[in-house]
Design brief:
mainly beta, 12 strands
Length: 173
């Protein structure tokens, strides 16, 4: 498959005997991703990937219970436990200004407002501990720096050029 894909969920179990699947969401937009009629690429742990179409959906204990067209009993879906569900990168939901997808931020080079010629490092991961996200920046020495994603620290994000400018408040390093 040549198109870029984004993970939106993981098939963690079956539900009932009528072919429903239990999905753990990995998207900020589950109501859109798992809506009736939506197509998702199912990537099984073994075998070939294929597109599925959602026939119905409901939420149960913080999981999404999907009924998929063409699957009518537990035996047909059980082998897909552990599969990942993806959408085309072209199918992204447009975000408000100054909001970004993780895949747009991860890989960006970080510079400080004090030295814009020398990179601080590259964003390798985004943590979501609570009040605000935290970027994990891998430095050239191999160590990690944790930067809170707050207005006082993140000054500019240029996803097109993969550059981020930050202000290092006292105590961040």
């Amino acid at each position: 498959m040549s198109e870029e894909l984004l993970t939106v969920g993981k098939l963690v179990n079956t539900h009932g005997i009528k072919g429903e699947i239990k999905v753990l969401s990995h998207t900020d937009f589950p109501e859109q991703r798992f809506a009736k009629g939506k197509r998702l690429l199912l990537i099984p742990t073994v075998g070939n990937s294929f597109w599925i179409t959602i026939d119905s959906v409901r939420v149960h204990k913080e999981m999404y219970i999907l009924k998929v067209e063409g699957f009518n009993n537990i035996n047909e879906v059980e082998k897909y436990k552990g599969s990942v569900l993806k959408v085309s990168k072209d199918d992204v939901v447009e975000l408000p200004e100054n909001e970004y997808y993780f895949h747009e931020i991860i890989g960006c080079t970080v510079y400080t407002d004090e030295d814009q010629d020398k990179p601080l490092g590259v964003i390798k991961e985004i943590l979501t501990p609570g009040a605000n996200d935290v970027w994990v920046i891998k430095t050239s020495t191999g160590s990690d720096i944790l930067i809170p994603v707050i207005d006082e620290v993140v000054l500019d994000v240029d996803v097109k050029n993969q550059k981020v400018k930050v202000h290092l408040m006292e105590g961040l390093l």
